[in-house]
Amino acid sequence: RSLFSLEPGTSEARFIVDEMLLGEPKTVVGVTTEVAGEMLIDLDHPANSVLGVIRINLRTLETDNEFRTRALRGQILQSDRPEYESATFTPIRLEGLPGEIEMGREFMFQIAGSLDVHGVSRDVTFDATVNPISETSITGTAVTTVLYRDFGISIPEAPGVADVSDEVRLEIDFSAKTTNVQN
Asked: How far is CA 52 from the centre of its chain?
């Protein structure tokens, strides 16, 4: 097995939510590149692979609007408070891994685990697509949809914002490298 680490600055976590702004539908995207995590990957026997905790710094989330970003960090996620600074995903099991991994060939599987946001933990399952570039480099995407209210998060009234979707799409694009190839 080889220890892969998410590369700082090249991996990205984001949320996507729809709202009505001044009578027009708008898709809001919040993004950060402060994503950390490690995984032990067994290229010969993928079922033996293990994912570690993925940590996302919510204080660094940015949207396309300075006022929205400030409200997101200060009022909605309250990420200026130390206890709410990070969101973490703790993988519990990997489902649907292939029997073998072929370099350059994408594969899909599910990652079931516990997502902790705003002091609340919920079981979620991410749909993951991974592309093994080489024995030392992998890339991929993991996606799930959650309800923000399930995490004790509320959206304050804001001028011109009529409706915010209950569903939030969470996405992580990752790039991971290893410096040690071992068995």
From this structure: 13
> Could you identify the residue written with the tokens 């697509």?
129
**What tokens appear for 92 in the block?**
């519990």
pTM: 0.92
What burial letters (b/e) apply to 135-144, b meaning 16+ CB within 10 Å? Answer: eeebbbbbeb
Residue 56 corresponds to which tokens in the numbers above?
């996302």
Helix intervals (H) in 41-122: 66-71
Helices within the chain (DSSP H only) = 66-71
How far apart are alpha carbons 158 and 180 in whole angstroms? 50
Whether the CB-CB separation of 176 and 5 falls below 8 Å is answered with: yes
Q: Please write the tens of the pLDDT for every residue from 103-123.
A: 999 999 999 999 999 999 999
Query: Which of the pair, 161 or 96, is modelled with greater confidence?
Result: 96
E-assigned strands of the chain? Answer: 2-6, 12-21, 24-32, 35-36, 38-41, 50-51, 54-57, 86-95, 107-117, 120-134, 137-147, 161-164, 167-177
